[in-house]
Amino acid sequence: MRILAVEDEDKMAQVIKRILSEHGYIVDLASNGIVGLQHFNENQYDILIIDVMLPGESGLTLCKKIRETDASIPILILSALDATDDTVRGLEAGADDYMSKPFESVELIARIRALLRRGSDLKQNTILKCNDLELDLSGRQAKRGGKVIQLTLKEFTLLEYLMRNQGRVLSRSQISERAWERPYDLNDNNVDVYINMLRKKVDKGYDIPLIQTVVGVGYVIR
Predict the structure, then answer these.
(1) Angle at the Cα of 217 (from 183 to 166), degrees rounded to 5?
(2) What's this model's pTM, rounded to 2 decimal places?
(3) Nearest-CA neighbor of 34 among 54, 19, 14?
(4) Is 77 in contact with 90 (CB distance < 8 Å)?
(5) What is the spatial distance between Cα 16 and Cα 105, in angstroms, rounded to a whole number?
(6) 11 in Cβ contact with 29 (< 8 Å)
(7) What are the pLDDT digits (tens) for 9-22?
(8) DSSP labels, the chain
(9) CB of 78 within 8 A of CB of 50?
(10) Angle, to 10 degrees, between the axis of helix 172-179 and the axis of helix 153-164?
(11) Are the CB atoms for 72 and 140 separated by under 8 Å?
């Protein structure tokens, strides 16, 4: 497994590389967004780790540029910015997960493994359908009414979980445990943020909304 870490602080970059290398990952480092994008375009990576506050070009801009050409590669933002608004901006820029500094090495490895596992799960040769919405798991592509919908890996994973449980109301706890592989925290709004992002891509512009809120319970697609 090969990982690209885009981090401008050399000491932090070396810490990240050491932790990942100790767990058998091959790690390339980039000190800014321009070099990071160059590495991404020239090499094949299994996952990207990106800091937000980078010189010249922010990590959020880098995420957006990468998502223009690759909607499925897992992206983990690792940043000292830990406010809810910072997390939301990171996720909206295309990141699949957001982790704040300082961090525990065991959690970093766990999150990377979870993202890689979710990406591997998408390789099943199955097409899920709900009304005029189709999810091609082998091709990692979503379509509604024949129009392609660009989804990040996390959005794809969330939509797959909803569609595999079509007609069944899923609680925030169930969604969090499946898509994030961690217990739901009442102070964590990741589930709501991602549902809203998914709605904008799946339902906006269509007469029939497929992703619905069940007040006091959770969400359902039908």
Answers:
(1) 90
(2) 0.62
(3) 54
(4) yes
(5) 8
(6) no
(7) 999 999 999 999 99
(8) -EEEEE-S-HHHHHHHHHHHHHTT-EEEEESSHHHHHHHHHHS--SEEEE-SS-SSS-HHHHHHHHHHH-SSS-EEEEES--SHHHHHHHHHTT-SEEEESS--HHHHHHHHHHHHHHHHHTTS--EEEETTEEEETTTTEEEETTEEE---HHHHHHHHHHHHTTT--EEHHHHHHHHTSS---TT--HHHHHHHHHHHHHTTT-SS--EEEETTTEEEE-
(9) yes
(10) 130
(11) yes
Distance set, CA 99 to CA 96, 104, 132 (Å) = 10, 10, 35
Work out the end-to-end distance of the chain between its first and last CA atoms, rounded to an integer number of angstroms. Answer: 37
Cα–Cα distance, 98 to 197 (Å, whole number): 15
pLDDT above 70: percentage of residues in the chain:
92
Give the span between the Cα atoms of 221 and 163, in whole angstroms: 7
39 with 30: CB under 8 angstroms? yes
Q: Residue 180: what pLDDT?
A: 65
Q: For 36-81, what is each residue's pLDDT tens digit?
A: 999 998 888 889 999 999 998 899 999 999 988 887 789 999 999 9
Q: At what angle do helices 84-92 and 59-69 cross, to 10 degrees?
A: 30
Report the length, in residues, of the chain.
222
User: Whose CA is closest to 180, among 136, 117, 104, 103?
Assistant: 117
